[in-house]
Amino acid sequence: MKLKLALAQINTKLGDVEANLAKHLEYIEQAKSQKADLLVFPELSLTGYVLQDLVASVAHKPTEDDPIFKHLLAASHDLDLVVGFVDEDSRHRFYIASAYLSGGEVLHVHHKVYLPTYGLFDEGRFFAWGDSVRSFDTRFGRIGMLICEDFWHASPPYLLWLDGADILIFSSASPGRGLNDNEKLESARWVERVNKAYASMFTSFVAHANRVGYEDGLHFWGGATIFDPNGEELAHGPYNEEAITYAELDLNQLRRTRARLPLLRDERTALVQKELNRILSRD
Amino acid sequence: MTEINLSLNTNLARDILAGFIKSEITRVGMSRAVIGLSGGLDSALSCALAVEALGKGNVLAVRMPYKASSKDSLDHAQLLIDQLGVPSKTIEITDMVEPLFKLDPDISNMRKGNIMARERMIVLFDQSEVFKGLVVGTSNKTEILLGYSTIYGDSASAMNPTGDLYKTQVRQLSRAMNIPAPIIDKPPSADLWADQTDEKELGFTYEEVDKLLYLLVDQRYSPQEAVEAGFDEAFVRTVTTRIRRNQFKRMQPPIAKVSNRTIGYDFLYLRDWGT
To answer: Which residues of A touch B211 (CB under 8 A)?
Structure first.
C-alpha cells in the first residue's frame, strides 16, 4: 500500500484565523491537484505561534458547526488533513492541539503534553497541559501525532509506537536558534537528528512539518522531513520559505524492515513497566 | 585559554536577517527602509541587508555629519552608497545641535555625543515619514550588552536585524557581503569627537570582549568559570558590571502597576499581533 504524504510549511498571520484558514484551503487545493492522500500543517497553523493574550480569542472547537472547522471538515472528504489550532474544552481550558480530519470526521485530537516554559518559550503560562498520548486508526493504518516539544522527550514517541502507530506525524513551530559556522541552525540539526533516530529505533515512518516566517524577532525555519523505517530520508523541504514537500510512502517497507530488524517484536514492555514501577515508587 | 569560535555561516545569516527586515516591513503594508549611514561598519551592514531584503530603490541612506565629523566618515558612507546604488540624503546636524551646546560653556564631550546621537534619531524618524520607510537599526550585540550607545539616540529604531551579532560577527558578515574594505578595516569609532575609537574608550578590544561575552551570555558561564577559561579577573568583573548596569538601556521604562491589567506585565501581545 502506498500513501502520498504532503507536508505544508506555511507562514501564518498572528491571531488572524480566517486569513490562515484561507491559506489552508489554498494549500489543500494544491495538494489535491498533486493527488496527495494526507496533508499535514504545522503546529498552531490556524493561529500563529506566540499568541500570549490572543489565546482565548483564537480558540475553536473541531466540530461541523464551527465556522472554521466546517470548511476543513468538508475538504477532508478529498484528502486527510492534520491541522494545528487552539482547542478549548467545555470547561474553557485552552490547549495547543492537532486534529486529524478524514472523510468529514475528526478521527483524533492531540493536545500537546509538553509545554516548553523556559528560555524563549512561555507556553505553560498560556496553555493547559494535555494529558494523553494515543495512537488512532486511519485508512492508512495506525498513526500517532505529537507537537514539537512532545517529541523532544523520548517517552511520547515510544508510547505511540507501543500503542500501534507505524506512522508518526510531528508538527512544529520551531524558532531557529544556534547560528554558528555549521551549514544548518543548531535547532534544525537537533530536530532532524531525533526524527531520524525515532524512525530508526522504532522502524517506523516519521514525518515532520515545521512552519516558516517570522513573529517579531523569531524566525521559523521550515525544512520538513520524512524518514522511512530504515531511518532513510525520503524527502526534505527547503528552509525558510513556504512550500509543500511530497513523498510517497511505501507502507510495505514496514514489513521488510521489521523482518530484518525485529526491534518491535523484541521490545520488552513488561520489563519497562516493572522497572518504571520500581523507579517511580522510590521515595 | 579555551578555544572560542564565533564564526558564522554567513549565507544563512544573510538569509535570516534579510528575511527579517522584509517580513517586519512588508507585514505592516510598507516596502521601504531608512538607515542612518555613519561611514562605519554596523550601519553599512544594516544597509546592505536592507538592500538585499527590499531592493536598492527602497532603501534611503541618510548621512548626518557634524562639523567636526571626520571626512573619512562621509567618504566611506558615500563609497557604500555608490556601491549599493541606493538613494541618499546628506543632512548636516551642526546647526541643530550648536544652539544647545552654546547654552552651557562647560558641556562635556559625553553630553555633546548624546545630543548628536539623539539629533540624528530625530532626523531619521522624520525622514522615515518623508520616505515612507521604517528606520532599520544598526546596533550589535556587543554594544547592546555593554550599553555602549545613547539611549533614545543610536539605539532607537523600528527593528534591529544585527542586534544578535557580536561586533566580530558583524565584521565577518560584512566581508561576506562585500562591504568596501576601508569600512571594514578602520578602527570602529562613534566619531563624536576627533580621534575617538571604541576600543580606546572601552579599554579593551572587540576581539577580546566578544569571546568573553559569548561565554557569559550565550554559553551561560559564571564569572568564575570565565576566569578559569583564561580571562583576566578584573576584565571579567568590568564586563559583568557593565552588562548589569546597562540593563535599563535594553528595556522599556517600567510602568508602576496599580490596575488588574498592566501594559508590560499582563497585557501581552507581540508587536506583530494581527500581521
So the answer is: none
CA distance B66 to A33: 62
Q: Note whether residue B266 is domain-resident.
A: no
Residue B269: which of A53, A176, A185 has the nearest Cβ? A53
SS3 per-residue string spanning A33-72: HCCCCEEECCCCCCCCCCCHHHHHHHCECCCCCCCCHHHH
CA nearest to A224, candidates A246, A203, A202: A246
DSSP 8-state assignment for residue B163:
T
Q: Considering only CB atoms, which chain B residues are within 8 Å of A50?
A: 270
Q: Which of B90, B99, B96, B140 is nearest to B117 (CA)?
A: B96
Identify the three-state secondary structure at position B160: coil
Q: What is the mean pLDDT of chain B?
A: 96
Q: Which CATH number does the domain housing residue B79 bear?
A: 3.40.50.620
Give the pLDDT confidence of B32-81 residue by residue, as tens digits: 999 999 999 999 999 999 999 999 999 999 999 999 999 999 999 999 99
Q: Report the alpha-carbon distance of residue A88 to residue A65 in Å, rounded.
A: 15
In terms of domains, do B50 and B162 share one? yes
Domain ranges within chain A, ordered by starting residue: 2-281
Domain extent at residue B244: 204-252
The pair phi, psi for residue A8, each rounded to 5°, is -95, 120
Q: Which of B160, B268, B271 to mutate to test the interface with A (most CBs of A within 10 A)?
A: B268
The dihedral sign for the CA sequence A36, A42, A43, A45:
negative
Torsion-angle region of B141 (φ positive above 0: left; ψ -120 to 50: alpha; else: beta): alpha
Q: Are residues B132 and B210 in the same domain?
A: no
Q: What is the pTM of this model?
A: 0.95
Is residue B134 one of the residues assigned to a domain? yes
Cα B213 from Cα B163, distance rounded (Å): 14
Chain A nearest-CA distance from B111, in A, is 32
Quote the ipTM score: 0.94
Residue B72 falls within a domain, yes or no? yes
Q: Are residues B43 and B121 in the same domain?
A: yes
Query: How many domains does the structure of chain B reveal?
Result: 2
Name the CA dihedral angle for A175, A180, A182, A186, rounded to a multiple of 10 degrees. -30
Question: Would you call B251 exposed, middle or buried from its count of C-beta atoms within 10 A (0-12, 13-18, 19+)?
Answer: exposed
Q: Can you identify the CATH homologous superfamily of domain A2-281?
A: Carbon-nitrogen hydrolase (3.60.110.10)
